[in-house]
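user: Please review this fold.
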Amino acid sequence: MLKYTVMKVIRKYLKLNFLLFLLLMNAVIFYIVIQTNPDKMQVVFLDVGQGDAIFVNAPNGNQLLIDGGPNMSVLRELGQVMPFYDRSIDVVLATHPDQDHIGGLVEVLKRYKVDLFIETNTTSTSSVYKELEDILKEKNIRKEIIIQPEVLNLGAGVQFDILFPDKNTAGLDTNNSSIIGKLVYGDNSFLFTGDSPLAVEKYVEGKYGDFLASDVLKVGHHGSKNSSSELFVGTVSPTYSVISVGKDNRYGHPSPEATDILTRLGGQILQTMNLGTIIFKSDGQNLSLFKVTFF
């Protein structure tokens, strides 16, 4: 009996030390990948399962969070890529009000000081959307409704060009109203598409043409067959296509139709369900990719 108790204590001790080792490794990875080279812009595709959440850190420290995933997992991911003492985010942008994009924003707004919240005029009847809007009012967070293209200046030469919507989206289907934006820093650029369907892709491609060309494409609608047309992907012509998607999701994302087009026209395909958190760093000329799976 005594031998069993001693072995149990040893196993518990080893397990605790292993967990402490993993936490230490996380801290080291964070320091190396995020904290070094502060003159670089970082774009982090957070591993939030079946949903979208992208964290942008400009060289001057200004931050932009695009969507917040389906649940509180975004808090864990932000805790990995933000210093523990940093409790503020300059801008939070919700591409559209679906659960898998705004579910985690409720807790983000509760726990972080947010200066500006950006969304469209498309509403939802969901409880999470109502709670989100209530928190915005309760904390008196400045809100901007996108009804036309505009430029969000993050400073240090980083800007986010909001390309769509270009009209009032009240009453539209949520996916059809997704904010599409191009993040630009020097020679490097990222195109974010929310859950924009084929019809919106066609409209945006017709309006902007080659301006859509970007180094990195955030693939629309998690790789659904209803997004990523040949025309659109070919026009963007990315070096990397990032699919934010959860393992064994019930939608079958990414679809064979989308991955076939992306394989031919979308450069290297990166999926959060396989790689975990995906980090890009740019000095305005050179783009570096880090594939980091946090424990």
Summary: The mean pLDDT is 91.
